[in-house]
Specification:
Helix content: 40-55%
Structural class: alpha/beta
Number of strands: 8
Order of helices and strands: EHEHEHEHEEEEHH
Distance between the termini: 16 Å
Largest sheet: 6 strands, parallel
Number of helices: 6
Shape: globular
């Protein structure tokens, strides 16, 4: 191994049944007691009460929350700088758009980002980049690896079938590519 090689992993990694209902205590354990939450479209209605109840019970203050449906950089930059200064983390709950938007907003503000994907097809929930629209074109822009990833297997299980299959395809592709490149080096 090279001297400067390292592997980055999230500080928080919770995967399991009911993880969404334990989001508040998970954040509290890391002293992330004041947060901003971005939800994907329609997810406040589906998961909002469960998340808010979890936060309240753990003593975590939700400074702001809203639904997001944009990955346009010109929308995300002002959103990032409107985050209250007392916020200790940005939490995004949903699919690719809201994960990428929240990740980039947190990156711009230099604060931890907590990724809460709602389907296994959310390929970017653990990457150190965000896929955004820049000048009307999709681009991968720098961000940081999520500080935390919280996956509720019951939420993932109830995702639309096409997203489950898509996520499995993403994983199989990565395994296949990883193995092929290893064989090429041998």
């Amino acid at each position: 191994m090279k001297k400067n090689d390292s592997i980055s992993i999230p500080v928080i990694l919770k995967v399991g049944k009911g993880a969404l209902g334990c989001l508040g205590p998970t954040l509290k354990e890391e002293d992330l007691t004041e947060v901003v939450i971005f939800f994907g479209n329609g997810l406040i209605e589906l998961f909002g009460m469960k998340v808010m109840d979890s936060m309240k019970a753990a003593g975590v203050t939700v400074l702001e929350y809203q639904e997001l449906d944009t990955v346009a950089i010109e929308d995300i930059i002002p959103l990032a700088f409107a985050i209250p200064n007392s916020a200790k983390a940005v939490v995004s709950i949903g699919g690719g758009k809201v994960i990428d938007a929240g990740k980039y907003a947190a990156f711009l503000r230099g604060m931890p980002f907590i990724s809460v994907p709602t389907s296994s097809s959310s390929d970017g929930f653990s990457s150190a980049s965000a896929s955004l629209l820049v000048g009307g074109r999709r681009n991968s822009v720098p961000a940081k690896l999520a500080y935390g990833i919280v996956v509720d297997t019951e939420v993932i299980r109830t995702a639309p079938v096409k997203f489950i299959y898509s996520g499995i395809g993403d994983m199989v592709a990565k395994i296949t590519i990883g193995r092929a490149s290893c064989r090429d080096r041998v």
